[in-house]
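User: Structure with magnesium ion, tokens only please.
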Amino acid sequence: MTNAVMAVKAIRGMNDILPDESYRWAFFEQTIQRWLAAYGYRNIRTPIVEQTDLFVRSIGEVTDIVEKEMYTFVDHLNNDSLTLRPEGTASCVRAVIEHNLLYNGPQRLYYSGPMFRHERPQKGRYRQFHQVGVEALGFAGPDIDAELIVMCARLWEKLGISGLRLEIGTLGNAQTRALHRTRLVKYFEQHRDMLDEDAQRRLHANPLRILDSKNPQMKALIENAPKLMDDLDEESCVHFETLQQILREQGIPFEINLRLVRGLDYYNRTVFEWVTDKLGAQGTVCAGGRYDGLIEQVGGKPAPACGFAMGVERLLALIQECGTVIHPPAADIYIVHQGEQAMRYAWQCAEFLRDEGLDVVLHCSGGSFKSQMKKADASGARFAIILGDDEYNAQDVTLKPLREAVEQTRLKLNEVTEIIRQANSNQQ
Ligand code: ATP
Ligand code: MG
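Assistant:
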């Protein structure tokens, strides 16, 4: 028997993002930050854990998330029921109410970070995944719904994504949904034998949810169910029409999907999803809508709001699928050195060049020039600086281009920066 210690593994469905991949995330995050700033959205950061009640009250008791996907646990130190956030809107709304942010007028906000849902892990579906969410609170008109959608379309261009389909729908107001609900219950009751177990259970608690079912055997039944559009109230109808008009003016193609039911209960009026065929079954990369009742429902003064969240993993997969080129980061210079004096000199040179704004890797842990040069090559750096006794005595450096067949040169340290700036700007 060996004494080997069992290695601890990460939790299923929760991924490490390693350096060979994380630069793609960095590209995404930088693009997102510039894009949001351009539209005047400001960042809000809330805790990853909240009181369970917040999510139950906002997302809805009879939803997939609350019924079976939440990481809920008791904090044994004080018996509080806590939940790892499964989405960001509820926390954002809680913070806005708690700090009275709407007192200063409407707010354009965004958040980003990990969310947690206990789902079956598969491609595009994880237990810890990441969302960027954008929320416009205190705005009632369809112009803000349109702004959010137009922003998305611009972002896809910036990320090099093509072929996303925009689906929009409307859920009307509370009365519309109550009326629709009654008609749905009646319809599904007439076809009770065709409902699966989930649907039977939801028939009275939350019949709208049945429309969201992914069970192919219920597809035809759902197809023929009463349409919410037929009960739509006049104001919601105008709201929806205006939204469509702005989208047409802005040149954003869309499809109307009157069966769009979002997986959370808090939506009303506008709902939308951006969908791709390039990622298999997990094709929705971004989804959102209006939630005019939520702020009041969570204990705030009534105020309208609209927002969306995008799935970062799915978008990164799509960026890759679309062939967007993202360069892995590499240092400008890798410094190799041999000998006591050259080593001290190398530290000095490295700091000097970093102060000049260059990215410099200083070789550590010794080794022959040859093995150091191999490391320099493998690092992806554009240049090597070679320092030995000769260079130390002459107080200069040997600069060797690593990516082109150009001879190495001896030059003064303060001449290096200009050469590298030149090389970098030629590359762009
Ligand atoms: P789905 O129908 O795919 O389960 P959803 O309606 O539950 O999605 P939302 O709550 O609207 O998803 O979340 C917004 C976006 O977050 C989704 O469109 C998707 O891109 C992403 N997302 C949701 N759940 C996951 C998950 N478990 N893993 C990875 N991304 C996810
Ligand atoms: Mg889901």
